[in-house]
Specification:
Helix content is about 35%, strand content about 20%. By secondary structure, it is α+β, with helices and mostly antiparallel strands. An eight-stranded mixed β-sheet has the order 4-3-2-1-7-6-5-8, with helices on both faces. It is elongated. The two termini are about 40 Å apart. The N terminus and C terminus are likely disordered.
Length: about 300
């Protein structure tokens, strides 16, 4: 994998692996906003995004609007941008979609990262203002990316393969249940035919088997699975037997089959398991570029 970490060799990771894999590292910052960029990485790309968002910030400041404060939660799963008080998630940037992260050496407050949007597939540059923590946040994102990449190599492919095996087993169980139901219907149909044939071949007036019990009105109790016995009419003829229902699946008046939550076809399983794996693999293959360089034109107003 071509992972480019352009940082000084004397820089080491600042947090334990457990802190990023089992929990998250929180940071407070001011969110200048996000803007679409044409490239997934590059100092020039970041410089243009910062210039654009700085200009928009000055316009909002002249109108009396303040820069909103946010909380960043960094883990091996991504970077979450939350509202500090309500903890409402405003943006959830998956880590394998982040391709570039940089802090400004001339202004310790500014850092940015570029992330590919999951819906529009556009590259968005997020710009933040943090009080002397820009470099630390940049390195934390780099450490989270490194841990996530290792975890993906260890268990990512195995998890997807396990899902495929479970889906195959569920499909096999469904086929067996369908086959079993068809055999039961065939057996029931044969029993109905034998019962009708036996009743039709018996002599008229003879009683075969035990007559069913009756209620206080001398009526035979209704049974949905029992076949009505042939009753002779006044002229001596018999009522023709009611034909048995076919073994086809029952449908409603609109012609739709009844819903069964335990029977689902192979098409009901998520078809994008492999595509999700390919997307993560492509994201990690692109890698994360960490840079500490001069990219802004002039420092932000410290009074904001």
């Amino acid at each position: 994998m071509n992972r480019a970490f352009s940082r000084k060799k004397d820089k080491t990771w600042m947090h334990t692996p457990e802190a990023l894999s089992k929990h998250y590292i929180p940071y407070n910052a001011k969110f200048l906003g996000s803007t679409e960029v044409e490239q997934p990485k590059g100092t020039e790309v970041v410089r243009d995004a910062v210039r654009k968002l700085k200009f928009a910030r000055h316009i909002k400041k002249s109108e009396g609007q303040k820069i909103p404060k946010v909380e960043l939660q960094i883990s091996i799963y991504g970077v979450k941008i939350l509202e500090p008080k309500t903890k409402e998630v405003q943006h959830n940037c998956q880590l394998h979609r982040i391709s570039f992260c940089a802090d400004d050496k001339t202004d310790k407050r500014i850092f940015t990262f570029i992330c590919k949007d999951s819906e529009s597939n556009k590259h968005l540059c997020y710009v933040f203002d943090s009080e002397k923590c820009a470099e630390e946040i940049t390195l934390t994102i780099g450490q989270a990316f490194d841990l996530a990449y290792r975890k993906f190599l260890e268990s990512g492919g195995k998890d997807v393969e396990t899902r495929k095996q479970i889906a195959g087993m569920q499909k096999r169980i469904q086929d067996l249940e369908t086959e079993n139901m068809e055999l039961k219907n065939k057996v029931q149909d044969l029993e109905n035919r034998l019962r009708i044939t036996h009743v039709s071949s018996s002599p008229a007036g003879s009683v075969t088997g035990k007559s069913p019990s009756t209620d206080i009105f001398d009526m035979v109790p209704f049974s949905p699975i029992s076949q009505p016995s042939p009753t002779p009419t006044r002229n001596g003829t018999q009522i023709p037997p009611v034909p048995s229902r076919s073994a086809e699946i029952k449908r409603d008046l609109f012609g739709a089959e009844p819903f069964d939550p335990f029977n689902c076809g192979a098409g009901d399983f998520p078809p994008d398991i492999q595509s999700k794996l390919d997307e993560m693999q492509e994201g990690f293959k692109m890698g994360l570029t960490l840079e500490g360089t001069v990219f802004c034109l002039d420092p932000l107003d410290s009074r904001c």
